[in-house]
Amino acid sequence: MTKKMLFVLTTLFFLTSLNSIAQEEVEKCENPISVGIKIGVPNLAGLNLEYVTPLLGGKLAGAADFSYIPVSSADADITILNWAVGVNYFFKKPGRGLYGGIATGSLNLDVTAYEGDMSGTATAKISFPLMVKLGAKLGKKFYFRTELGYGVISAPEQIEVTLKGGGQPDQIEVVEIPPVDMPIIFNLGFGFSF
After folding, report:
1. 45-61: b or e for each residue (b if 16 or more CB lie within 10 Å)?
2. What residues make up the domain containing 13?
3. CATH code for the domain in which residue 43 is found
4. Helix (H, G, I), strand (E, B) or coil at 25
5. Cα distances (angstroms) measured from residue 128 to each of 41, 100, 106, 154, 166
6. Which residues touch 179 (CB under 8 Å, ≥6 apart)?
7. Using CA atoms in the order 85, 91, 96, 100, what is the torsion angle rounded to 10 degrees?
8. Tens-digit pLDDT profile for residues 118-162
């Protein structure tokens, strides 16, 4: 047997072994669904869902975040609604370890303020057309995750405030908003995989 033939056979055996190990690794992703809580910026606090697909050796996952936070007091009612959808790519192990991600999302804010018999209502929407993150997901069934990244932001320059009450007809005031510059994304989370 020539050296070239021995080299080709050894290479084929090595590649076949790697393919077999890679397929076994995909099968070891026993807990592809993760449900947890995320706290941070921009989502504040909310639900996080992730599904590790069999694509790219079991390393590509779809992810979604959702926050709904209503806050009421004698002076104001505030509702914060945040959502984001994207994909994560795990660099070494399927569904665990270091990963990179991209996502898109939105943060909606509804405010009603009260003063005497007057009320003012305003709505603002901040879009995140692109968020790029680097994260780590540690653990198997119970996990802890952290993310750090950058987001491109699209925010309104002004909002309309509708004033009602006080025996006067409804009035609309335009309020200038200072530029929103919050490019940093930082999240901590935990949950369960099954």
Report:
1. ebbbebebeeeeebbbb
2. 1-30
3. 2.40.160.70
4. helix
5. 12, 17, 6, 6, 38
6. 155, 157
7. -30
8. 888 999 898 899 999 999 999 989 999 999 999 888 888 888 888
Summarised one tens digit per residue, pLDDT across range 24-79 is 444 456 889 999 999 998 888 999 999 999 988 889 999 999 999 999 988 899 99
Specify the number of domains making up the chain: 2
Q: Which two tokens stand for residue 118?
A: 């007057």
**Which phi and psi angles does 27 have, rounded to 5°?**
-65, -25
CA-to-CA distance for 135 and 96, rounded, in angstroms? 10
Residues 17 and 42 in one domain: no
Task: Give the predicted TM-score (pTM) of the model.
Answer: 0.77
Cα distance between residue 164 and residue 139, in whole Å: 53
